[in-house]
Amino acid sequence: MRKPQTGQGFADIAEGASIDPADVARFSAQAAEWWDASGPFAPLHRFNPARLAFIRDRVAERFGRDPRTRAPFEGLSLIDIGCGGGLIAEPMRRMGFAVTAVDASSENIGTARAHAAEQGLDIAYRAATVEQVEAEGAGPFDVVLVLEIIEHVADPEAFIRACSRLIAPGGILVVATLNRTLKSLALGKIAAEYILRWVPAGTHDWRQFLKPDEIRSMLSAEPVAVTGPFGLNYSPLSDRWSESAGADVNYMMLATRD
Questions:
Q1: pTM for this entry
Q2: What phi and psi values does residue 71 have, to the nearest 5 degrees?
Q3: Which of 208, 96, 97 shows the shortest CA–CA distance to 154?
Q4: Distances (CA, A) of 158 to 139, 142, 164, 222, 255
């Protein structure tokens, strides 16, 4: 059985300007429930297949890999920033990536490490911020994942720019978040938290949602090419998420470095 790593020997304490203490505390309080598919993170479990398919297909296209093969991304490095309990990091490792995964919550990292150990997956988990990763000279990485985290940080522009600087030449960054529209207020905030009870009340602050053009503007000073948005929509009939042309609630964007 492979043993999960602790993260290149660095101190395992998250520090940095991007931390929003209230959000970190909220997710830390639920850390033990990340892998409960019917618990507070159930929406992410339902969301995961669509996210994974999007990442797999875009990265395979970028690096000329065949996603139908076993471990198609062997030899490539990936960092998952704001990894939570490891719901994305684990399947990424199974696809062949050498995975580093960081989160500002030590409790989340503890849950992620324990689950990876049970699965025999060697993932370099670490309680840290992107500022720490950059300052310590880690990376660069072929793939940088920034999924459902930018809407929870204190300074989204400084955060996403720091994330982009971790992209290796020829690499790709994938960001996923919620659009700031009236539809996302109705569905992503009010319905999800207070009617459907998909996530605990207070999980999101609609004012922190970002429009695609805002992310594009934030990255305009960095040497990356930004594409998207690519919408992800939920069908209540099939209870499934899929990629769609509509990006007025959930969406993803890509940034590539030559």
A1: 0.87
A2: 50, 60
A3: 208
A4: 18, 21, 10, 11, 15
